[in-house]
Structure formats: structure tokens, C-alpha cells
Amino acid sequence: MSDFDYLQASLIMGGVTFALRAFPFVARGFIAHHHRIQVLGRRLPVAMMVLLTLYAVGVHHWGSPADGRDQLIAVAVVAVLQLWRRQALTSILAGTLVYMALVNGWPGL
Amino acid sequence: MTSKRGLVSLTLPVMMGYLPLGAVFGVLWVDAGLTWYWAPLMSVLVYAGAMQYLAVGLLAAGIGWIDLAVASLLVNFRHLFYGLSLYHLLPKGVIGRNYFIFGITDETYSLLSASGRVKDPETALWVVLLNQSYWVLGTLTGMALARGLPPGLQGLDFALTALFTVLAVEQIRAKKDWGAVALGVAAAAVAGIWVSDYFLLAASVMLVLVLLAWPERKQKEKPAHV
């Protein structure tokens, strides 16, 4: 990729994100009074985060679940830790360490 | 406004999160073989954690710009609602105002909306600036660390999965919306079986369409929090 490609990608990602963050300031009434937007705002993030987790796990490569078991174990570790301690950083670091231990075949696993 | 020391202690929880999470982004970026200096530039220009993590894989795979725009829209869609409770903190000047809006990440939003300790736009602007500086500093740290990691080390990219898992758990905990959870799983299954090449795009478009069309009783809606 050239510098121009990176710049274009950054401006697209940054631009879309900025537009989302700016929208409520320019269109307060629209968001506040449109029933469907409210419904979308309440329910989409839940569904989207579940979807993104499944995407990151790689369910769309069901044909070749090379490390499906390791992924599931590590996701379970993250979810349980997060429900228990509610410290995002601890959950993420612990889950990543567990996953790395599993896929790299570190001693004892 | 709050004193400089007060600002640091106020933003300390975000610092604890952004330094290591930014570092993971820096490591992933270098590991993926992408042009090194675009990691910190992206943390300056984009400043959206989950999307930046996701972008590492997408850019390495050579994704098109429409897909990138759609992914940004859907991953960050929740940000559409953050501004509604931050109106009183919006700075007056054009630059300050736009930078404040640019900097409303998940963590900054929760700090500004929940703590009650930030009451004026000037303090709010400092909070945004400090938080982003932690994120950029974390990215640079990760890039430096990436060189020291043993070659052939696998699995660091699980941090992305872990991040999304944490966000999913927090969303479910807050809203207890099992219908939406089932919808997310169903969309993933349908897209995974029939359109796995366009998995994320297809599944998320399905989510939006179903949610827009789903019949729902109006009186159950709470009034908007403005």
C-alpha cells in the first residue's frame, strides 16, 4: 500500500467515525424523536458486538476451524473474567495470554 | 477548571486502559507488515480503538474503501448517541468544538457523562486531549515492543476478539436484550453459510434491516435522554 492508500483509509475511517460522533450535535431532535432510530440505538450495539465477536473468532471460516477449540476456551475466559471482575484490561490481557499459551503450545497446556 | 493534577487523576483509569490497548494495536500493526509510521498517524487521525484493531486485518487483506466505510459505520454506530448527553460540555470555538466531538470515544464518553466531575467545556477538552495522548503514546510503545518479540510468536491478534468479547458482555449486561443477542448469532449463521465472502457487510446489513422492520410496541420506549 502507498502512503496515499493509508491516508485515504485513515480519512475514510476517521471521517465516518467523526460524522457519527457529530450527528447528535447537529440533529438532536431527529435522534430524540424518531422511534425507529431509538430502537436501533438500543438494540443494534448489542447485536453488533455479538456479531463482531463471532467475526473475530472466525465463524465465517467454518470449513477450516483450525484453532476453534483454543478460540472458544479463550473467549470463555474473557467473558467469565469480565462478568466477574468487570475490568476490561484484565479480561483482555488474561484471555490473550491464555490463547497465546494454547496456540504456541507453552508448557503445561 | 480542574487543576493539572486533578486532570491526571481524573483520566487515570483511561490511561491504564489506553496505554496497553494502544500498545497491542502498535504490535499488531508492525506484525502485519504495514507501513510503520501509519500506526501512530492512524491513532491521531482516526482514534477509534475497535475499528483500528479491525483495520489491521482489513488493510493487510487489501479491503476496498466502500467496505472500509461500511465497517467504520457499523463498528462505531453506537457513537451516534453519545453526544446527546454531552451537549453542555461542547466548547465554543470552532477548533475546540470539532476536536471535542472527534474525541468522544467509548471511554471518554463514559468519563464525561458518568463521573459528574467534569462540569465545564475547558476541562472536558483537556480530558479528550489527555486521553488521546495516552492512546498515541500506547501505540508508539507497542511499535517499539514489537521488535523485541520472539519471531514466530502467535496469537497476539486474539486481543481483538477479547476486546469485542468484553464489549459484547458489557452490552448484554447493560441491556439484557436476549432478542438482540439471538439476532446477532442468527445473522452470523446466515451470512456465514451463504455469503461468507462478504460476512461482516452482509450480516450487519441484515441486522439493521431486521431491527428497522421489527414490530415493537411504542409505549415501551423510554423518552429520549436529552
From TrEMBL, chain A:
<keyword id="KW-0472">Membrane</keyword>
<keyword id="KW-1133">Transmembrane helix</keyword>
<protein>
    <submittedName>
        <fullName>AzlD domain-containing protein</fullName>
    </submittedName>
</protein>
<feature type="transmembrane region" description="Helical">
    <location>
        <begin position="44"/>
        <end position="63"/>
    </location>
</feature>
<keyword id="KW-0812">Transmembrane</keyword>
<dbReference type="InterPro" id="IPR008407">
    <property type="entry name" value="Brnchd-chn_aa_trnsp_AzlD"/>
</dbReference>
<feature type="transmembrane region" description="Helical">
    <location>
        <begin position="6"/>
        <end position="23"/>
    </location>
</feature>
<dbReference type="Pfam" id="PF05437">
    <property type="entry name" value="AzlD"/>
</dbReference>
<feature type="transmembrane region" description="Helical">
    <location>
        <begin position="83"/>
        <end position="103"/>
    </location>
</feature>
Automatic annotation (TrEMBL), chain B:
<feature type="transmembrane region" description="Helical">
    <location>
        <begin position="50"/>
        <end position="75"/>
    </location>
</feature>
<dbReference type="InterPro" id="IPR011606">
    <property type="entry name" value="Brnchd-chn_aa_trnsp_permease"/>
</dbReference>
<keyword id="KW-1133">Transmembrane helix</keyword>
<dbReference type="GO" id="GO:1903785">
    <property type="term" value="P:L-valine transmembrane transport"/>
</dbReference>
<keyword id="KW-1003">Cell membrane</keyword>
<keyword id="KW-0812">Transmembrane</keyword>
<feature type="transmembrane region" description="Helical">
    <location>
        <begin position="124"/>
        <end position="146"/>
    </location>
</feature>
<protein>
    <submittedName>
        <fullName>AzlC family ABC transporter permease</fullName>
    </submittedName>
</protein>
<comment type="similarity">
    <text>Belongs to the AzlC family.</text>
</comment>
<keyword id="KW-0472">Membrane</keyword>
<dbReference type="GO" id="GO:0005886">
    <property type="term" value="C:plasma membrane"/>
</dbReference>
<feature type="transmembrane region" description="Helical">
    <location>
        <begin position="7"/>
        <end position="30"/>
    </location>
</feature>
<keyword id="KW-0813">Transport</keyword>
<feature type="transmembrane region" description="Helical">
    <location>
        <begin position="181"/>
        <end position="214"/>
    </location>
</feature>
<dbReference type="Pfam" id="PF03591">
    <property type="entry name" value="AzlC"/>
</dbReference>
